[in-house]
Amino acid sequence: MNIPETAFARASAPEDDGLPREVDVAIIGGGLMGCACAYYLSKAGARVLLLEKSTLAGQQSSRAWGFVRQQSRDEAEVPLMQASIDIWRSLERELQTDLGWRNDGCLFVAGNEVERDGYESWLPVARSFGVDTVMLSPREVMKKLPGYAVPQLGGLFTASDGQAEPTLVARAFALRARERGAYIVEQCGARGIDVAAGQVVGVETERGYVKANTVVCAAGVTTFRLLKLLGIDLPQQLVRGTVARTTSGPALSGISTIANGVGFRQRLDGSFNIADDAHVDVDMTLGHLRALHWYAPSLWAQRKSFRFHLNGACLTDLHQRMPWSEASRLGAGIHRRDPLIKPNDKGLATAMRALKAAFPGQVNTQIADRWAGAIDVLPDGIPVIDAQTSPLGLAVATGFCGHGFAMGPIVGKTLADWITTGNPGLDMRQLRLSRFAEGDVKPPSSLF
Ligand SMILES: Cc1cc2nc3c(=O)[nH]c(=O)nc-3n(C[C@H](O)[C@H](O)[C@H](O)COP(=O)(O)OP(=O)(O)OC[C@H]3O[C@@H](n4cnc5c(N)ncnc54)[C@H](O)[C@@H]3O)c2cc1C
Hints:
Layout: E1 22-28, H1 32-43, E2 48-51, H2 60-63, E3 67-68, H3 78-95, E4 106-109, H4 113-120, H5 123-129, E5 133-136, H6 138-144, E6 155-158, E7 162-163, H7 166-179, E8 183-185, E9 190-196, E10 199-205, E11 208-217, H8 223-228, E12 237-246, E13 256-259, E14 262-266, E15 272-276, E16 280-283, H9 292-301, E17 306-309, H10 312-320, H11 326-330, H12 345-358, E18 367-377, E19 384-386, E20 394-398, H13 408-421, H14 435-438
Parallel strand pairs: 1-2, 1-11, 2-8, 4-13, 11-20, 16-17
Antiparallel strand pairs: 3-7, 4-6, 5-6, 9-10, 10-11, 12-15, 12-18, 13-14, 14-15, 19-20
């Protein structure tokens, strides 16, 4: 199926409602970043409009594995993730909603020396930030993952990490934001951001114009299109990741785990989310030539991680470039309202085999549901989170490179604080939008 099966309760206003004529902040994109931002802004008393071209959290934010981890992150993200974990711990209480939160840790098991050395190399980062990450011995790994049946050399473990249910979190933020007065609209795309004399003054939507002195652009994989309309060149690209949910298996562990090439987390009902940890798919289009020079070195260095495909995506992309296409008419990424993203069944079969090889007790566990998502990436493997950019009043949260679910709560809170008080509360310099124009971009530890 195209999206995880959990149905989304309507958090938005009915479609025939008009839009407010003026708000303090308009947010483009009803993924986790947009919904969390809407919640914290409304909580701070701002008048908020959240525009979603399709369904709330219909894209990346409901399709994630559900890992909430600090470990193995780029240093630029660690303080944010530490603050995010603090929020996660009490988020179910704050939002009065079950979010599937389990604070049972994250474990990457090393199958060989290269992996072990790679994992170990993150320990100095953990120490410098005071994260509770440790290297477990093989015996300690066996205690965490009883019955693990393939050779291993220990693992990287962070007890304070956890997991949560992507199908629930953004929606919960949206519902609570609406209760606090936020205007949340589905099936209504933003067509552009209006700027006068260097200051954001409004947003052009499919249902008319709304005045706003601040616009948050959190439009996932189409953010670069909206920014391009403002003359800002963001070298954003996309890759495809596949996930499956299984039937219930015997209780194994609540730890978000990568082991034997498979990423998995088990829910309390026994079902797992699993994914082929080592690979993502790239459906080649002309769009992938854009900004290629930014990516070429990493693509080469990480070439074993990418499966390149020349398929229908290329033809669709060509068609969308024609002046008469819906894409050209609507602009701003609205044409791909509810894209059908095909899961990679071969990769899932590999992941399932790897899970069963590692845990023979799961022999009867089967795939129950599967989906794929377009992951937005940036060349340095870290996002843009910025509310102090040019034009004035533009805020951006995008490019989370396959690990933004865990950061959602703190991204929403940070942007809301930044917009309402002028102070983000954390040092956000490394995540600024202008780093690409300035050429101040370091190589990524990983692109996704
Ligand atoms: C397969 C997969 C596995 C992942 N696993 C993890 C994980 O385990 N842990 C983790 O931390 N992260 C994970 N991630 C990454 C995480 O899901 C994303 O980083 C995060 O959800 C990004 O949220 P977002 O709000 O920026 O984007 P999205 O959720 O993509 O939301 C953007 C929204 O903007 C809307 N939009 C676009 N253009 C417009 C427009 N013009 N007008 C109005 N609306 C518009 C879209 O319809 C969309 O709903 C995973 C991602 C995928 C795909």
